[in-house]
Amino acid sequence: MDHRCPHCERDLARRRLSQPIIARMEIDCRYCRRRLRVNVHPAEEALIFATLGGFLLCAGLGYALDRQGFYAAAFVVALLGAGALPLAEHVWLRTWRRYVPIEPPSVRDFPT
Predict the structure, then answer these.
(1) CA 69, CA 75: separation in Å to the nearest integer?
(2) How confident is residue 52, by pLDDT bands cut at 50, 70 and 90?
(3) Mean pLDDT (whole number) for 94-101
(4) SS3 label, residue 86
(5) From CA 44, how far away is CA 53, in angstroms rounded?
(6) What is the pLDDT of residue 104?
(7) How far apart (Å, rounded) are the C-alpha atoms in residues 71 and 57?
(8) pTM
(9) Which helix (H) or strand (E) holds 90?
(10) CA distances from residue 59 to 38, 56, 77 in whole angstroms, order as listed
């Protein structure tokens, strides 16, 4: 995945400690201080929703049927989903830009 700032082209792959903990869709470039939007690929969204759906399905079946095997399956689904996301970033999404510039609002966007 391409983690460069679209304005100054500096690498933002090494994030500050607060950025991975606080998930935001907008960040500031630490070099040029311009506002950036996180560009999420549709495949990432699909992978996250499929993992969450599989986890909830297995956990719900485990609760409804009172079977321990479904809880183990829910744990395995969560682990597979967590491992598949970095793999997808390194294999298929190598050239995908993680950050895109936020367009400043134009004058005509404000009511008069």
Answers:
(1) 10
(2) very high
(3) 90
(4) helix
(5) 14
(6) 66
(7) 10
(8) 0.72
(9) helix 68-91
(10) 31, 5, 10
Residue 88 per-residue DSSP state: H
Each residue's pLDDT tens digit, 27-36 = 888 888 888 8
Three-class DSSP labels, 13-42: CCCCCHHHHCCCCEEECCCCCCEEEECCCH
Query: Residue 103 in 3-state DSSP?
Result: coil
The residue behind tokens 């967590």 is 82
Residue 44 corresponds to which amino acid? E
* CA 55 – CA 75 distance, rounded (Å): 7
Tokens of 23: 């998930």
Q: Which H/E stretch holds residue 91?
A: helix 68-91
Residue 69 predicted with pLDDT over 90: yes
DSSP for 37-85?
Answer: EE---HHHHHHHHHHHHHHHHHHHHHHHHT-HHHHHHHHHHHHHHHHHH
Q: Is residue 20 over pLDDT 60? A: no
* CA-wise closest residue to 5 among 103, 92, 96, 98: 98
Instruction: Give 112 or 43, the one with higher predicted confidence.
Output: 43
